[in-house]
Design a protein that fits this description.
Layout: H1 2-34, H2 39-48, E1 56-61, E2 66-70, H3 82-93, E3 101-106, E4 111-114, H4 123-136, E5 140-141, E6 145-148, E7 183-189, E8 198-202, E9 209-217, E10 226-230, E11 235-243, E12 249-254, H5 258-272, E13 276-277, E14 281-283, E15 291-297, H6 301-310, H7 314-325, H8 335-348, H9 372-384, H10 389-394, E16 418-425, E17 428-436, E18 442-450, H11 455-469
Helix pairs in contact: 3-7, 3-8, 6-7, 7-8
Length: 471
């Protein structure tokens, strides 16, 4: 009886092994069949959007190898995908707990505002510091407001950017003491019919004067709303017609002098808390014997990186690059040294300078060059490094949910399952990151396009490629 029982147990075990073996093998085979996207599908998508094959560098990979490849080793201008490389280097060079510190000092006469390179120093932070000043008992400043931004060099617009300056916020200057991303917000909304529109600058300070040449009209406007800014004259001019019932419009304009911009807004905030100042806002250094009054600690590095990547913020990219250089250059830190550090981190993971060329960390240049295969090597390395991967992934836009992907791939298999960085520059459109499949696989992909086609067409084509890979 015992022998018969043992034989029965063995037969049951053997049957279980046989039953389990066949389905697993079939499932694995099915996975292998799904791994590759057919060349016909890719060709039809490119043809639909009138994209010539030589204009793209495309690659999708999983943990086994390539799923899709087209000119994957051909270098293209990546536009803002450059920020992925910058993020990688920042996470390698700066500890996750890294913070930036902005400080207020005083001596017998002057008040000193010292910048620590915080890319995320905004109005709320300045209000906190001024509120702390009121608790310190400070009532008046007899001397000047002296702004110390000596931690970085004085180059506001690095030569690695496009040569032509624009007054849009994406081309804001860089300084160790910066405020509100070094841009002013201008709000315009309709007034009473036949009268001027309401124009407001935020933050509201004495830094700019506003000339309001607008008119509120009914029906359709005959004169387009225009907003110009003169940093040399400290003047904002708003002209044109605004239609009754229109929603309020918000326009961002960049400023030129981050230190004086920060100091002037400090004075404005202090006056609103009845702290009287009688001097001027000037650049300078904090003397050794000055008394520390207030210290403001920045938000986390991971949150700052999300600011950069979710909304493709060029200002933050250059600020963080100079912050890396501070590790070696304790004052006057340069973007050039920070960029060298970025390239050094690439060499450490086996990527030569011939494979990836980074001259500007934000991608605000057509001189950066990268191939889909090389970028995927960086993304794959990050994916395998648990010390930085969660933070890196968290900061990327999510398809159909937020950031620069908020309106893309909605209602598709990719919504909520793709985390990727977008890139746009004249003649360049790109997309790269990670895509999750329902079977648990995480794909790594890089798509780069250089050519004359419209941004909308290229984006739709790239979205379709990644959606197809998730089927």
């Amino acid at each position: 009886m015992k022998t018969r029982k043992n034989i029965s147990i063995l037969l049951v075990l053997l049957l279980g092994v046989l039953l389990n073996f066949s389905p697993v093998h079939a499932k694995d085979t099915a996975k292998l069949k799904k791994r590759h996207i057919s060349s016909e599908d890719v060709s039809s998508i490119l043809a639909k959007y009138k994209i010539r094959p030589e204009q793209v560098s495309i690659q999708i990979i999983d943990d086994v190898g390539e799923i899709l490849s087209l000119n994957s080793s051909i270098k293209k201008s990546p536009a803002s995908l450059s920020k992925l490389i910058t993020t990688f280097a920042v996470l390698k060079r700066l500890p996750l707990g890294h913070k930036f510190y902005t400080r207020l000092y005083r001596d017998s006469k002057n008040l000193y505002l010292q910048g620590g390179g915080d890319p995320a120093f905004v109005s709320e932070n300045l209000w906190y510091m001024v509120n702390e000043l009121t608790r310190s008992g400070l009532k008046t400043v007899q001397g000047n407001i002296i702004v110390d931004d000596s931690l970085f060099d004085k180059i506001r617009f690095d030569e690695s950017r496009h040569d032509k300056r624009v007054d849009r916020a994406y081309d804001s200057p860089v300084g160790a003491m910066s405020f509100n991303w070094n841009a002013v917000n201008i709000f315009v909304k309709p007034g009473v019919l036949g009268e001027k529109a309401h124009v407001t600058a935020d933050p509201d300070s004495d830094y700019f004067s506003i000339v309001n040449n607008t008119m509120t009209v009914a029906g359709t406007s005959k004169t387009e709303l225009k907003i110009s800014i003169s940093n040399s004259e400290k003047l904002i001019t708003v002209s044109g017609e605004v239609i009754v019932g229109e929603k309020e419009k918000l326009i961002y304009k960049s400023i030129d002098e981050p230190d004086l911009w920060s100091g002037t807004n400090l004075v404005s905030f202090m006056e609103q808390r009845d702290i009287i100042t009688s001097g001027y806002v000037v650049a300078g250094r904090v003397p050794d014997k000055a008394e520390l009054l207030v210290t403001l600690e920045s938000k986390s590095l991971s949150a700052i990186l999300a600011d950069m990547n979710k909304y493709s913020n060029n200002f933050v990219a250059e600020m963080l690059t100079k912050a890396m250089a501070v590790q070696e250059q304790k004052s006057g830190a340069t973007l050039k040294r920070g960029v060298e550090m970025i390239n050094e981190e690439l060499v450490k993971i086996g990527i030569s300078r011939d494979e990836i060329l980074i001259v500007n960390p934000s991608g605000l240049t057509s001189n950066n060059l990268i191939s889909a295969a090389s970028l995927n090597r960086v993304l794959s390395h990050i994916k395998k490094d648990f010390s930085i991967y969660p933070t890196f992934l968290e900061g990327l836009p999510i398809a159909g949910i937020d950031g620069t992907l908020k309106k893309r791939m909605k209602g598709s298999l990719a919504e909520g399952w793709v985390r990727a960085k977008t890139g746009t520059l004249t003649g360049a459109v790109s997309l790269a990151g990670y895509a999750g499949r329902r079977d648990g696989q995480v794909l790594t992909f890089s798509f780069l396009y250089n050519g004359p086609q419209s941004e909308t067409n290229i984006r739709e084509a790239f979205d379709q490629l990644i959606i197809n890979s998730l089927k």
